[in-house]
Amino acid sequence: MVHQHGDGVDIPQEHKMQHLGSWLPHDHRVQHDWLSKRIKHVDTHTATPLIPVLQEFKELIEGNSRIYMYFTQMWDEVPLKKPYYNDPTGKRQIRDYRHMLDVLNHIFTQAPQWNDCAFGVGMVGVPMVSVFDYVMATPSGHAAFLDPEVNKMVKKILMEWGRFLQSPQSAEVLTTESNGWFSSHGKSDLMEVANAPCETSHAFEDMYVCDPSAKHYGYTSWDEFFTRPLRPSIRPIASPSDASIIANACESMPYQLSHNCALRAQFWIKAQPYSILDMLASDPLAAQFANSTVYQAFLSALSYHRWHSPVSGRVVKAYVAEGTYFSEPLFRSSTTKGASKRDSKMDFEDDNDAVAGCYAINTSGLRVSQSYLSALATRAIIFIQSDNAAIGLMAFIGVGMDEVSTCDITVQAGQHVEKGAQLGMFHFGGSSHCLLFREGVAVEGFPEMGRACNVPVRSRLAVVKG
User: DSSP states of 326-361 as a string?
Assistant: First the structure.
C-alpha cells in the first residue's frame, strides 16, 4: 500500500487532496498534523534567533513597503473558515509573516521526513510549501512570489536549505524509525513506486546503489540519498542502436501531450497553453520550435531524480534559466454565486468563494499548474542536435518546483551524448520535465496520459517516423 498516495486508505472526501508526484500526502490531515507539530514546537519553546538568511528575509519584508504589504495582506486574505483557519484537530495554523519566519527557522533544522499520526502515515517532501500552502494562491501571495526581489531572496534561502540537506546532519532521517525513510512504510512506499513500472519485486539495495550494511545505507546526506543512482542493469536503454526510438528522459508519470504549440501564448489563463518562447526563456533558438510538440511528465517524490538523454546527439546549449519558486496561477472563479460547483473546472472550496469576478483559493494548487510552471519556474534548458536527421534539433526542459528547484546540469555545450546518458539531476527533489520536438517531426506512440504509474527512465517513450 502506498500510504503517500492514499491508495487503499479510507480518506474522508473533505480531506482528500490529489498531489501530483506525492510531494505532499493525499490525506490533507497528515500534512496539517505535520505542520501543527512544528508550530507547537515553535510556540512552546523559547524563541530562537533567526538564522542569518531568514533575518535578512525579515529585513527585506520590513524594509520594503511593497513587500511588507504583500506579506502582511497574504495572510489576511486566507479565509477565516475551514479548512484554512484551523487544522483538523482544531489547532491554529500560521497567520502572519513573523510566525512564518519562526516556523521556517525550525524547519531548517530537519530534512524532510515521514509523519506518523492518528490519520495515517505520509511524507511532506516540500516543507516550505506546507507553510505557504494557501497564501501562494491569494492575490497578495501571487504578487509576492512573482516579485523579482522576493525571488532573489527566496533563492538565497533555498541555497541555505540546500547546504543543510547536503550536510551529515540531514542524514539523521535515513533511519528505520517511524519517521525515517527506511521505516517499514517508507521503504515499502519507495519500492512500490520503483517496482510498479516494470512489475518487478526488487529490494531497495537491488534497485539503487547503496550499502545496506552501513549507517544510513551508506548515504552521507539526505541529498545524496535523494539523488541516488540506479544500478546499471535496472533501467536498460531502449533500442540503443535504433535512432528512431526516443528514450524516456526521467522516471516519471505522463502529464500532458500537446501538438502545434504556439510560440507565444497566455500561459497564465485557466487553459494554460504551452508558451514555447517563455518555456525556452526567449532563447534565440526558440523560434525554431514554433508549432512544436510538447510532452510533459511529472516526477514522483519517492522516485529517481536524474535526467537522461532521450536521443544520441550533440549538446548545442545547456543552462539554467532563473525563475520563480513559489508562484502558482491565480485563477478567477468560473462559477457564479449559487451556481453548481460541478460547473467549475477548478476545485474551489464552496460557492461563496466563487462569486463572479472574484479570486478564490484553488485547492488544486500545483496539481493544475504544471504548464504554468514550465514558463515561469527555475528550469534547466538543454538543446540537443540529434544524430537522427528526422529529429534534428530538440529540447529538454527540467522544471523546478518550490524548494526543489535546484537544477544540476552535468553536460556542456559541444559534448556528444549517447541515448540514455545522464544529462543532470534535480537536487532536493524535482517537479516535471518537458521534451520539445519541432514542427514536422513525425513523433508518435507516447504513453497514455494519466496512467497510474511511472514510465521507466531510458525505456521507449515514442518513435519518430521518417
Answer: S----PBPSS-TTS-GGG-SS-BS-GGG--TT-B--
Q: What is the pLDDT of residues 433-448, one digit of tens each?
A: 999 999 999 999 999 9
243, HSE (Cβ side, Cα atoms, 13 Å): 13
Using DSSP, state whether 154 is helix, strand or coil. Answer: helix
CA atoms within 13 A on the CB side of 208: 23
Q: Residue 326 and residue 401: Cα distance in Å, rounded?
A: 7
The answer to whether residues 84 and 360 touch, using CB atoms and an 8 Å cutoff, is no
CA-CA distance, 121 to 117, in Å (whole number)? 6
d(CA 396, CA 158): 24
Q: What is this structure's pTM?
A: 0.84
Distance in angstroms (rounded) separating the CA atoms of residues 206 and 231: 7
Q: How far is Cα 447 from Cα 248, in angstroms, rounded to an integer?
A: 10
Residue 465's φ and ψ, nearest 5 degrees, are -90, 150
Strand, helix or coil for residue 140: helix
If we measure between CA atoms, which residue out of 18, 181, 32, 151 comes closest to residue 92? Answer: 32
Digit-coded pLDDT (tens) for 113-138: 775 543 343 444 567 777 887 788 88
